[in-house]
Write a structure and sequence with these properties.
Elements lengths: L1 E4 L4 H11 L7 E4 L7 H6 L7 E3 L5 E3 L1 H12 L12 H23 L8 H20 L13 H16 L1 H7 L2 H9 L3 H5 L3 H4 L5 H8 L1
Parallel strand pairs: 1-2
Antiparallel strand pairs: 1-3, 3-4
Helix pairs in contact: 1-3, 1-6, 4-5, 4-6, 5-7, 6-7
């Protein structure tokens, strides 16, 4: 299998985390710049969006959530479970996390194509701040027990918050407080995500090296 990714994409990072928790799995990491629409990526994904997991039979799987769910249901990663879609709080956490990741990334990406701030960028920044404020309260009460489970929802939430720290540090410092900090420290995915920070991935390590660091 091949995983197309880059070192700063939060979507790539969450898939890489899930894959690294699978025993006896070998993946070739293909480091690409999706903004350049490299031919090897566009052959696998005409949208030139990462991550893409290309299976051994050549089938390309797109969209990080779909890829993670495939890995979980096919390979049963160590310490990573799919969510119970009948459990409303678990679905709520996954939805919040995925949307925070989407909006946080889109707001940064828009800056590549404009010389200054625009309404969409400002709206994205505002929404990220609002989400962080609500999460701070929710992680103390209704989402506290859910956010400690080793599920896909928790993995996405941790990866999303890491991305906000990385790309929206001012908003994080302004709106995130003790409950958010506690979640990041006590997260069941702290070790694996700490092993694949953007700073570590910039060296483009092999999958085997990443697995050793994660387990």
């Amino acid at each position: 299998m091949k995983l197309y990714l880059n070192d700063t994409s939060p979507f790539s990072r969450v898939v890489l985390a899930a894959a690294s928790l699978v025993e006896d799995l070998s993946i070739e990491l293909v480091w690409v710049d999706p903004w350049q629409s490299p031919p090897n990526l566009t052959r696998a994904n005409p949208f030139s969006i990462i991550p893409v997991l290309q299976l051994t039979d050549g089938t390309p799987l797109l969209e990080s959530l779909c890829i993670c769910q495939h890995l979980i249901n096919r390979f049963k990663p160590l310490g990573l479970n799919d969510i119970d879609y009948a459990h409303t709080r678990e679905v709520q956490v996954l939805g919040i996390a995925k949307t925070l990741m989407d909006v946080g990334f889109r707001t940064v990406a828009l800056g590549r194509f404009t010389d200054g701030d625009n309404e969409l960028i400002e709206r994205g920044r505002h929404c990220v701040g609002e989400c962080l404020q609500r999460l701070e309260k929710q992680l103390k009460h209704e989402l506290k027990s859910i956010a400690t489970k080793p599920t896909l929802a928790t993995l996405y939430l941790h990866a999303a918050l890491d991305y906000i720290v990385f790309r929206h540090s001012e908003a994080f410092q302004l709106h995130a407080r003790e409950n958010t900090a506690t979640f990041l420290v006590e997260s069941p995915f702290r070790q694996v995500l700490d092993s694949i920070t953007p700073e570590r991935l910039v060296s483009k390590p092999t999958f085997e090296h990443i697995k050793k660091a994660a387990l």
